[in-house]
Protein 1
Amino acid sequence: MQSESPKYPFLSASKGSVGAELKEDEIERAAAFLMDALRGKAHVPSSKVYALSRLLLHALDDGWAYGKFSDAMAKTVEDKDTEAVALDFFPSYSHGKIPLPEYLKGGGSLSGASLDKGFVSVDAGELRSLVRNAVRKKILDFRSARRDLIPKRVLEIAEEMRKKLPKPSHVTARGKNLELPCVQVLLKGEPEGSRYYGAMALAIACVRDGVSKDAAMEVMEEYANRCAHGTHPFSSREARDVAEWVYRHPNVRFSCRRMQDNNLAPTELCDRCRWKPR
Amino acid sequence: MNGDYVRERLSWFYSRFDTPPHEVAKREFGFGWNSKIDQRHKSFPSPKELREFLRRESPLYASYSVAYYQIPDGRPMQRKGFLGAEIAFDIDKPRIGEHGHNGIICPACLDAARTDALQLLEEYLLGDFGFSSHEVTANFSGSKGYHLHVDSEAVRQLGSDARREIVEYASEPRGELLVEEEILGDAREFYEEKKRGASKLLRGPDEKARGWGKKFHDEAVAGLKASPLDDEKKKLALENLRRGNYGAVKGTEKIWEAALAAAKAKHALVLDKQVTLDTARLIRMPETIHGGTGFVAKKCDLKKFDPLRDALAFPEKNMVRVKPAKNAAFELMGKTFEVKEGVPVDMPEPAAMLLLLKGYATLA
């Protein structure tokens, strides 16, 4: 992998940037590429198209679209390039071994991992899936970046694209707890610091409303996608684990006080709640 | 009266406090007078101000962030400017069977917790995870268990998912250790095995396996050697185990089930996972007092630490008269104490403080 023009635009040596002046045709090319990727058609874009399409993706601010795009890009890594791409994500990779912190930072799982004295041994197949996962993670990590610097024209095109996006799943579960004003706000996602308690409250609302566990998992998944990424993303797995716990303890009650203690229920919301907690 | 006495003694203790956590200025602190944390988002520019606060305010509980921040007292959390976080482990539910449990202070539980913490340190932190001993510190929690902290540049940037991987790895074998392999192509290997009596092609960790694979493989070999199988079958099964073939001999499934159970019993630790994966967590500050016991959350060498002797905050020679609110018996400092409800008694200060803080007595 030569450093001047890497084949894959997501590698750290890639020089792709949006540039000071945005050309309409470039944005349109990037928008077309992004739509293709969201429909599962993967190919390697130029670094410029890639940079612009990520900006559009960021402007869309849609968890589902982020997931689809990252999957599509991960699939573009050819088998013959796996080792070279691996070195970009796992710089200390050598002779089939990766130091544990690098392995975990790249999104590696310790489930069934061959771990010894701080090194994880990987075979060719494991390295391939690890590299793809690392590409996904790198793209998804960008979700926490600032949005206020996105150029106006990019935001406009993103809004046009939004109407054509394939429909993601949406929360359909209903119930007296799920319809509480504070829970309705939760469903839009929470910032870092209140994501965990938010997930707990949401799962309790689901269990109290008699929502099936499968349906609750969809609610939790969507919640995790909508949560702000902050310093670390709140993964759907974390959200599902919370629901698993709550469904094992179905007698846990929804607590207005807990909601208030964790800044999840501002007074103005409680004022218009039919429960009117004191 | 109890409150004034306790506060005055905590102030005395903290006037000698000289072991602040490193990088004080980048930590968030939390303190509790009625509960474990009544006030958080506190910060101190240097150890001197922290010590002065502890001496002046005498909190029952003092906690600090595992994370380092640019603005530790910033609110909300996003304003703090996350710089990285240690990885912390909490062991307070030791693996211990039926025993004569003491609700005031249980030496058996404390010793089992110490043993588990030592296993976490040696087998996982220094072993499988490969951290250096200078990156790891251990301290008594001040109550029922132990905290271990790992701090290095490499771990500070690990996110919650990575931390979850680490804590779950030490808690249970994840993924399938034995897999019934799909028969592909002409499945020659399977039929060769079948001729020798194999029931199915069952793949698992081989003799070169690492991590949980090795833990399971070692138990499988031990279980097989101790099994009542005849010698020829044992030899055949052992040869196949080396290659990771667990289906070579009929009737071995029960041995593998027992091996998996034994591997879990021996190696799976009970950890409070939330403590490890939450980077915004506040955890007891080492070398401060636990307000539920009066013991110090002492940094320790897990091989030889005895909290009932080594974690005392107050001098043994100070005698304090207390009036027990109920009957109680417990061991501390190598002595057995037995008190009767309503009968005032003079006790060494560490024992008196334990009863006072646990609500078993009042000052007489």
Protein 2
Amino acid sequence: MNKNLVRILTYIKMSLFFMVLGSIVVYIAGAPIASYVIAQGNMIIDKGAPGYPGDSNLDLSEPIVKANGTLDQSEFQIPELDTQYGTITCDRIALTAPLYYGDGEYVLQNGAGQYSLSGMPGEGKPILIGGHDTTYFAPLESIAAGDMVSITADYGNFEYEVVGTNIADVSDTTAYDLTQDKEQLILYTCYPFGAVTGDRSNRFFVYCNRISDTTEAAE
Amino acid sequence: MKHKKSRMQAVISCIFALILTLLFITLYVCFGFSLGVFSNRSIIEELNRSNYYNEVYDTLNKNAEELVIKAGFPATVLENVITIERVYVGGRNYVNGVLAGEEPQINTDKFRSDLTSNFDQYLTKQGITRTDDINTGVEAMISEIENEYKSSIQLQFVNYIIEYKTHFMNLMKVIIPVVTILIGILCFFLIKMRKYKHRGLRYINYALIASSCMTILAGAYLLVTKQYEKVNVTPDYYNNFLTAYLKWDIMVFMYLGGIGLLISALLISLTSFVRNRIMNS
């Protein structure tokens, strides 16, 4: 075989070999970094929008929360999974995140996600909301008891007061109680904050009680 | 023994070349972000290319008209207030200010005074008596339109880009020298450990070709599958700008990969030259 042709084929073969090996290493080692970068990028794009927050087709013109702060169940509809239905904010720590129904990876890359088997704001049941510690829920690192957390939903506004925080293992089911009879907002995120690699088995929980009125949902 | 030594050299060369591939990819990523994502010029050019300011003007004008008509005023009260020149200059000054690291100022004094004057003229022309209610209502309307103008020209996205750019550049001050030194060391050892230097050069070339092709193929995949169009944000003018901006960022990586392939072509020539020199001597 022509020596030059052999050399060309060797170049192609060896380059392909290193491409394949390199791709495997980049995929394994780079996946958490890429995921972090994509989540940060989504957050910048979201928060960088003109008029953010608010441009999410939310219509606050006809809230269906009654005067005593409970949901008017006859008008209320559970949102579709993975759709944004509100915004969660805490002014003191500059927390602002779109609030989605559902907590899959797509949702968490674009905002905060509500566990679909927990209650809705105004329903009088515990609400479990998660977010990434490196993006939308990064400000939770500075949260403290007494801070006010607001949920602006497309059916009304709800205020909560932080009463405590806790760090627990991800498998610790005693860290929160979704069967309790009061409307407690439970925010959670990965702990320690900002770590991309390493031990990510802990979660940081923030417990907030609904303030002002009773939270019994109308029958 | 000689055969065993030769095999050992080949294995070590492959390991070094793999590490070189990863280091080259790191360099591509760093330069790609510097010249694409965090480039001031990219942002400004894509804003112009995507017709951003024209669309901001159209949207702002439409929203302001809806506001005044809903309040019972004609759209003519906005005459010479919301103009394409004002939107373009205001928006461009805001973006340039943020990119220059300044605290952006949006001066709406002239905007407000022109709008107030238009409302005054209209009310006078219609013979409407200025009661406290009317004054309060007009004042609220003017403030609302002013806020609409401010939020339209404030591109917060640029603020976030600059914030992240600062962190990125601090990181680059460490990464680039370290990666460059590592590349130098690996190239030195690849050439040094071989009796025939051109064989060491070949491994450097394999790494360069592999990393360049990976960069180009990744970019091509993102372009062909139009990942940049999946952004889907509102308003439309912001979405259009982001689509153009992300597309350009992907193309920067492909251009860098192309430059890498050109350098590898030169390296192949150099390898051939070194080899011929060895053969002739």
